[in-house]
Amino acid sequence: MRDWTDSDRAVVLGNANHAMRNDGDAGATRMGQHLTDRFGADYYSLGLLFGTGTFAAPTTHERTAFETYAVDGPVEGTLEATLADAAHPNLFLDFGAARENATLRTWLGGVERVQFSLPRAAERGAVPLSASPGAVYDGVVFVRRRRSVTATDTGRRRSLPAVSTVHRQL
Questions:
Q1: Which DSSP string corresponds to 79-105?
Q2: pLDDT below 50 — which residues of the chain?
Q3: Of 77, 80, 104, 170, which has the highest C-beta tally within 10 A?
Q4: CA distance linking residue 31 with residue 18, whole number of Å
């Protein structure tokens, strides 16, 4: 990445499932784990999470056609379900800062799962993954309700929702 950008820093975007690190699972090594192995503490894994709404996923291997799928609500017992209880609909949580805050440590203490969606299983909506959120992500941005961008949205300016830090919520 540094060779491609000719810079000391780069932003790499990917589905939250790709950006996260592996948490002891025997599955395929995620992009976030490869980046952690290569860059160590210089890699900040930021999960982009949502509670309800829609997302688009490719319907062909060539990724030329997409379909919109719905997530009716956060999966019980996941980080997303916990964050949905916060007062603000959109927020940022840094796990390093959360570990230093007794209230946040207690609030997040029992959360051992995250949710994600897969293009190959998009009709299932969100599925749970047993993983400690603070181990697979350094931080997360959570949006309570989101919708997919469609071809008709192209060129239309949309204002971004305000993002609040969890610290102000508790």
A1: HHHHHHTSSSSEEEEEHHHHHT-HHHH
A2: 151-170
A3: 80
A4: 5
SS3 73: coil
Nearest to 50 by CA among 96, 91, 18, 22: 91
Closest CA to 138 of 98, 104, 90: 98
Q: Which candidate, 135, 143, 134, places its Cα nearest to that of 83? A: 143
Summarised one tens digit per residue, pLDDT across range 20-53 is 998 876 678 989 999 999 989 889 999 888 888 8
| Chain position carrying tokens 């000719």 | 6
Please report the pLDDT score of residue 121 as a whole number: 62
CA–CA gap between residue 26 and residue 150 (Å, rounded): 36
Contact 95, 21 (CB under 8 A): no
* Inter-CA distances, 2 with 13, 37, 97, Å: 15, 15, 28
Q: What is the pLDDT of residue 87?
A: 73
For 78, phi then psi, to 5°, come to -95, 165
> At 29, is the secondary structure helix, strand, or coil?
coil
